Structures are given as structure tokens and as C-alpha cells.
Amino acid sequence: MARREVYVNGRFLVQPLTGAQRYARELFRAVSNLSAFPADLDWHLVVPAVDGEALSLPEWVQKWRVLRMGRMTHAWWDQRVFARFCGRGRLTVSPVNLLPLRPGWHVLCLHDLVARDYPEALRWWARLFYWWNHHNARRIAVLWTVSEFTRRRIHLRMGLPIESIAVFPPGGDHIVSVHADESVLQWLPFTRFFLVVGAGVPHRRVDTVVRAVDLVRREFPDVGLVCIGNVNTRLFRVPAHVRAWQEGRLPRWMVWLPSVSDAQLRALYEHAVAVVIPSEYEGFGIPAVEAGWCQCPVVTTGVGGLRESAPECPTFPIGDWQTLRNILSRFLRDPLWRSECAIRHHRYVQRFTWARTARGWLEWLTHIAEEFQNLPVTR
Hints:
Elements: E1 4-9, H1 19-32, E2 41-47, E3 65-68, H2 76-80, E4 91-94, E5 105-109, H3 114-117, H4 124-140, E6 141-145, H5 148-158, E7 166-167, E8 192-197, H6 206-216, E9 223-228, H7 240-246, E10 254-257, H8 262-271, E11 274-277, H9 286-293, E12 298-300, H10 306-309, H11 321-333, H12 335-348, H13 354-371
Parallel strand pairs: 1-2, 1-4, 2-3, 4-5, 5-6, 6-7, 8-9, 8-11, 9-10, 11-12
């Protein structure tokens, strides 16, 4: 009997690295390294045939059949190129929020429902596109997501039975698989700093952190703020703090890094006083888990998926820079309390490993592949 064909949308390999692309890269790397892989399935990875990053695919791709097709890298590639592999008994896997809309057997990962829960973060056309995608996903796809929070939001917003939605959370151990590159610290005009990762998206209220650190500096003038992240201006509205960076209006004690390597990111985690996650909305919060693996304390707003990625960390209300100032000052004033927070969070995040997620996901997908012939094409 011929092995069932699985076609994975590999556009994430040529996209800028955000949480969703990180999740896809690390998940399939870990799946490829499992002894159970390929699990009696015929795996294909479909990637855009573009120059640059696509020419240096990661090592784990060697275990796959790679198909390079189409030179677009935006969302229409999914509909015009990847959609060609729908139907004919094939199973398509879309790990980054969007699926092809042709009839077939589809598996889709929705990382969050920001288009429905926090639509003001997106440009109008992106809101319409994601709503259209969610509407069709209800009918033609089997879904998985990254947190119990997003699972509940999918159930409430899209009307799908909650038991039909699988959950496979991200790992964080990828960040300790590389050696720290401390050369990044030479770019900083200060030795003590707080860190915000993924600062380019509107639903992370970096303005709150800026006001809090400004107050902290009255007592600790040697402290700075490092923000990492860029903004996809085609998809997201540009928040005020990003415009300030683009226009060179940042305070002298604040450094903005559009992107860093994993080795540099590890060094920043290991030397930061704390990581601040000032989100108004969060599907999971990979930076919280990465920081925990690097034994760096975390402070969050405690919203959404942060209750799962950092439930024991100190929290502050959204936009409340006064409370955040008090927490950050205590990190500096009380090293023992900071160490206790870091150790407690480090112990908690040990459950988030990519090997564990990959084993559960591969077992689940194998079951889907065995059963998909009995599933209706549309719902």
C-alpha cells in the first residue's frame, strides 16, 4: 500500500522570523529528528523558489522531499502555488495561520485570533483576509493551536467543538542549543538593562515599558532598555513607539535592534535584569519560555496565553507603568527576589520542549492521516 502523501506549506522558511515562523521551524526540525519520523507518511515540503534564504535551507530539510515553486513570498503564494497540491488524496499542512482555500484535506495551525480579538492592530485588508480565512477554516480544515487560551477563543469565536481542536505548545529549549554571542553587548551604552522581545507589533505596549524605565532611572540612572523586533507594515499598523525608532527619536538610554541571531538573543536573555512582556493580547508568548530557559526573570501583563507560558511570574495591569516601575525597581533593589523569580520560572518552563511537542504532534497527525479518508471534504 502506498504511503499517504503529506504536503507542508514551507513559506515560513523564507519569511522574517516571528513567533509563528519560529514555531514552524522548530516544530518541523524536532519532528524530523524523531526516531518515529517519517511515521509511514510521504513528506513533502513546498517552498517558494526565491533567492537568498531559500537557497540555504536548514539541515533537517534533507530528510524531506523539497519542491521549490513560485517566486512570491506573500499570502497569495498559498492560494496560487501551494493550493495546487490540494485534493487527489493528499493531506496539506499549513503551520502559520493561513490555508489554501481549494477543496481537500487540510490541517491548519492558528496561533491566535488577533484579527478577531484585537482587530485594531491590523490594517483593514488584513482583517478582512484573516476573517475570510477563519470562515473557510471552519468548513474545510482540522485545526491545532499553541495554547489552551487560543483553543478556547477558536471555540468561542469560530463555533468549533473545543474537543476537535488540538493543542501543541511551543518549546523553548532551542535558545539554549546555541552558544551565547556576547558581542551584541558591545552595542549597548549601558551594562544593566531590561529587555522587550517582539516589540514591533502594536499589541505589545512598549510605551508602558518606556515610561516605567524612565521612572526607574531616577533611582538607577545606569539602567537602559533594549527592544528587539521589526514591524510588518503591510500587515500591522505602525505603533507610535516604532515610528519613534524609525525617526530616530528614541531616548539615549534605549536601544532598538530590528533583529538578532539566536546566539545574540541568548546573550541578551542571560544578561538582562528581566524580560518585560507588556502585551494587551498574547496567543502564547514564546519569549517568556525562552527567557525561562536562560534563567532570566520575566514580568508580564498576565493576559491570554501568558497565563500558560509564565503563570508564576510577577504581573502588572495593562498600561500601568507605575506598577511596572515598582516591579522593575524591586528586581534591581532585591537580587535575592530576582533570583527566586528566575529559578521558579526556569523550573516551570522545563515542560516546554520541542521534542515533547513534536512527539505529540506527529502522533496526532499520523492519526489524522489514517482517518482523513473517512472525513468529509467540507463541513
